[in-house]
Specification:
The chain is an alpha/beta fold. The chain has a single domain, classed as Uracil-DNA Glycosylase, subunit E (3-Layer(aba) Sandwich), CATH 3.40.470. It is about 40% helix and about 5% strand. The protein has twelve helices and six strands. Strands 1-3-2-4-6-5 form a six-stranded mixed beta sheet, sandwiched between helices. It is globular and about 55 Å long.
Length: about 325
């Protein structure tokens, strides 16, 4: 009895601390700018903290055996607000990534109406997908949602308990923190696009979907089955930057990825298996909001990552 009381007290105290720390994210965000070197001549960033052993992801995701021949129906939920100003997908490429010839790029680029229709069609395909066992245990598929002309796209690992019930991404406690992170950048949820690698809820106990704490990361087979959906979404939206939230998303999207700790602190050219991007897209890896709730001390490091994207887009962050 005493042990049960102590466990409940410890759990309540941990929840209280996490909730308190959530409200501090925007406050911590405002004063300092990251020192990450995103262009020549800028000071090099401070060394990144070493990731705890438990956060290192070593699983290899299959990429070569994807059913590329299958043509997915176009994807995602319609935007809930008007596009940001100047969000046409026509930015100059970064690094050494080859850019399509102008005529080819123009043919591949979609306008807002075309993107909306393509994403909506793909969302319907996702909602009826049964390519892997997750399709048989989900309550609702979660295609994704946001601005089809977003410059920034956030990609997590998979839906959780709340997302499975609402059919929307990042609506639980981790989603509330992600909203604060987006606001800290000087954006709103309506100005970005949010999705997951896996489109259905991976459960540790799929026979009891009503259980809380029944979440797990998608496995390699599930990610391989869902990969074409997230890749199609990225190619349609054509964001300038993809932010991979957590090691699973980063590992799935960044080739030859070894661990989240090794990936953080720099941009990578995004290369997709099943589609051709209309123009170069950069990807950055950072912590998943759920990991930040468990480890509040990592929030400063996550903020450093987000500021790298802000610097590239000229965002000033939240105003106090």
């Amino acid at each position: 009895m005493a042990n049960d009381s102590l466990r409940r007290l410890a759990s309540d105290f941990k929840t209280f601390l996490a909730a308190q720390d959530e409200d501090e994210f925007v406050s911590a965000a405002a004063p300092l700018r990251a020192a990450a070197a995103v262009s020549g001549g800028e000071p090099a960033p401070k060394p990144l903290p070493k990731m705890p052993e438990g956060e290192t992801l070593t699983v290899e995701f299959p990429r070569a055996d994807l059913p590329v021949a299958e043509k997915p129906s176009p994807t995602v939920l319609a935007p809930s607000a008007a596009p940001m100003a100047g969000q046409a997908c026509s930015a100059a490429p970064a690094g050494n990534t080859p850019q399509p010839a102008p005529s080819t790029a123009n043919e591949l680029l979609m306008n807002t109406a075309q993107k909306t229709a393509a994403l909506a069609e793909l969302a319907e395909t996702i909602k009826t997908c049964t390519r892997c066992p997750l399709g048989a245990t989900r309550l609702n598929a979660v295609p994704g949602e946001g601005n089809v002309d977003a410059e920034v796209m956030f990609v997590g690992e998979g839906p959780g308990f709340d997302e499975d019930r609402q059919g929307r991404p990042f609506v639980g406690r981790a989603g509330q923190l992600l909203d604060k992170m987006i606001v800290a950048m000087g954006l709103t949820r309506e100005q970005v696009f949010i999705a997951n690698i896996a489109k259905c809820h991976p459960m540790t106990d799929p026979l009891h979907p009503e259980k809380h704490g029944n979440d797990r990361a998608p496995n390699a087979e599930e990610i391989a089955c869902c990969r074409k959906y997230i890749e199609k979404q990225i190619s349609i939206i054509c964001p300038k930057y993809v932010v991979a939230l957590g090691g699973v998303a980063a590992k799935a999207l960044i080739a030859d990825a070894k661990s989240l700790g090794a990936l953080r602190g720099q941009f990578y050219d995004l290369h997709l298996d099943s589609v051709t991007l209309p123009r170069p897209v950069k990807i950055l890896a950072t912590f998943h909001p759920a990991a930040l709730l468990r480890n509040p001390g990592w929030k400063k490091d996550a903020w450093t990552d987000l500021q790298m994207v802000m610097d590239q887009l000229g965002l000033q962050g939240a105003r106090k």
